[in-house]
Records
---
Amino acid sequence: MAVYYCGVIYMAMMHPGQAALENDVMDWVLKNPDAKTIPAHLEGKLERINRYNELAHADKKDFLIRQDPYERERIKDEILETHEDNTQRAQMEQDLAVYIDQVATSQLKYELYDIAERLNNCRHTGAAGIKPDGNPVIAWDTKCGLSKLCPDESREVTQRLTEFYLPELVDFKKENISHRIYYSVFTIPNIQPGELRAGKKEIIERFKSWSEKIPSLKGSLIIQEDPLSAAGDWNVHLNIFLCVKGSFDYKTARAQWGYDVEFNELKGEPQDIRDALLEAIKYSAEIAPTKTESKADQDKTKAPAMTQWPHELFVEWWNANKRFRRVRNYGCLYNIHKKRWNSAGYDSRKKFIKIANETATKQEQIISGGTAWNSWQEITSDHKTRLRRAMTHGEPFDISLVQWVGAVNFDSDGVYSVGSVLGDKFFNTTATRSTSFDFYNDFRGGG
């Protein structure tokens, strides 16, 4: 996968996949003459092509133009460098989309076709701009929202949850000299195929029972994971942050759990806690192989990448993780949203409501007069859901502060460009085009 950032508008461009898509649509229509709509996977491709053509014919008056050639080159280089670093994640998404499509076919799991298409359409086109701090930003047209599968979405959710829980953990540590925070991984014997959902529930219930036997435990944050092991069974475990007041006996804690477990006390510095959170929240299942086949053959104990899982086991994993909360909090870390609302002043509550309204879906009504809610208990269930989302996600970036300078489009189907408004001839020269082809071919393995 490659990214191309262009410096001139092409007025008569056509997406290289457009002719192929038209053929696919025609074939499908001929085979389904009574259908009134086209299937989702064709509609998704059509939307991408329409967006491509829209960007390619963009009018300069729709953008703020940066005339400084040096500034244009800096933005171009930073975007290219950023996405060159992220090409592995992007390729993993494409590989996983192909794999899931195969699973859908072999296992007759038709809902997975839509999942594969969402992965396939994730973060291909967007508007490129410059933030007030001078750094480039891309506003993506489409994100898949599949944080348990997509490396980009997982990375975004991990950062968001880290910033959400970090203040609570830091405050707990500073609140009392006897307060300490431990990070640990709790395991149970691997779960056999066919029993994953039961194993996930078992480890959660086991932890809740264990917590009741540790009097010094004041709160906890748990992140449940279940990658497939090299032996072909499920490695169900918990990444856990423990908020402890007073003494904490390792030997007793291990004995109560029933299996050996290591406890690592974290320093109270925010960066130390943030680093631990980032490591714990990210999903541990490797999406695609990162080793060559020869190295993988030498390491027989390495857990298989998701794209190497037997199809029936992926379906089991998918079903077991549907509507299952893998991040949970207890004790002093429970119901953080309630605590923040009840302790917030008028301005803070007004901000929470503003975010909830700005991020509302078409089906959700605008929240009005909510600042009068003196306690969390007064808020309706629907509004609580929206306010939780607002508090967790935080305030969306104000795109009105961005100077939009062009558009980016990158795809694994071929090498092509998208019009921009920078006014230079960056992508119109033979040398630059040749360089782009070389970069693309190097990443794809030649050809």
---
Amino acid sequence: MRNSTLFVQRGHLFCFILFFVLGMILVWPSLHYPMVWDDLHLIREYSPQELRSTWSDNWDPSNTETAGFRPLSTYFNGLRYALFGENVALHRVFLITLFALFLTLMVWIAEIYGLSRDIGILAMSLVYASKYNSFHYVWIADGIHLFQALFFAVSLLALLQGLRTINSSQREKGQQNSNHYTKLVWKGLLILLFSIALAGLGLLVREDSLNFVLTLPLLGAYYSRNHFSLSAKTSYTALRNSLLPHLFYSFTLVSMIAAWWTYRATIVDESTLSTLTISGWIQHFHLSFLPHGLTSFDLLSKGFIVGWFCFLLFLSIYAVIKKIYWPGSMLFWLICTFVAASSGIVAARNNLLLIPITFAMLALGAFIDSIKQPDQTLIRYALVASLLGAIYISWTASQTYHPFSIETIAVNSRTIYAPESSSLAIPDERRLAIQAQLALVGINGPADIERIPELAEAAIKAGRYTPAGIGEPFVSRLPSLYVP
């Protein structure tokens, strides 16, 4: 593990600017797409009564979304609407900013765990460009995943700072400076509690934060093992002093999770737990290593997807030939990926892969960082080529949310006109705009919803698979949350 610092450096500002520019490149084709689907009724002004009710009832006042205890989701959606109103471009630039901040924090964290900065930047760029993460800046409501991810990243940084502070107190104790020692211990414990509080806030954003909050004790233990030089030869006293903060943190974190889950159970019907499936966990885990996805739509996309598999195969053969086995923190990041991917147990959806993909790319980065020059330089060029391919595929995936894609027409028609959607609180200006948008393709009321398959068939016959003109429906080449 490199001698890294927990203090921000000027290089991290460069990372943020780089990621912001990359984000603008990714979002540019879809920057002005109108709101779609859940955006229509989630991104709005909420009354004080609606906001208060989220602490004792379902997070969605309309009760049409998946039931959950997510009060901060509703607050965040209301805040976004207060800041940006109906300006979709500003909404997406805001999400790009959050994404850039999250990835910058993860590069910083990766450095603390021993990864070189340039490899960390390449790895996080692949996270950004992954087609599975395009949801978080094109589909405005789905940007909530960036909000919860930021809580995780800052919570982890606080955990590491708390552990470092407590460890430094041991030196003061050794120098018989008991007063300063006590202050440092209490300061470290308070920072650990702050970390747990941030993790708790993440749980109040979305329940699936639990899947990566559970990695925090692992991340803390691995940091201590490597940074504080603990080994089998470490004295009992030193080992005990190192373990106590981890036991305190783990016990308090688990207690917080138990209290949160107990209270949540009084609000949310847990009958949905009967749908748990291990196959979803496995699917999330293996998709975390595939930033290009599995679905091709032309020769170029197929080349990038096959090329990525060849790249992974090459690295595997290279590892065998060079006898590189679990270098650096690779195995550790793989374990974190497996734990975080457990969100697939409840719902195997492609937009739940942000943290698992982040861990998976850190595992890949740890392996590449162990390769010596000049081989590493060639592999870096391959990563850059893969990044370009991921950008190309993400651009295509974002077309699903174009106002005249069949999928957008279908979900917007149901949201505006279906009888079960009559209770949705959609701002009048937005409702009128979407109605006018649907009218351009002949959808003027509930009865016209049945015409959508005809529109899709006509688009296929005309060969329209990319945005054409105003009022011309097309079939997106990478549709659905559930197509890998």
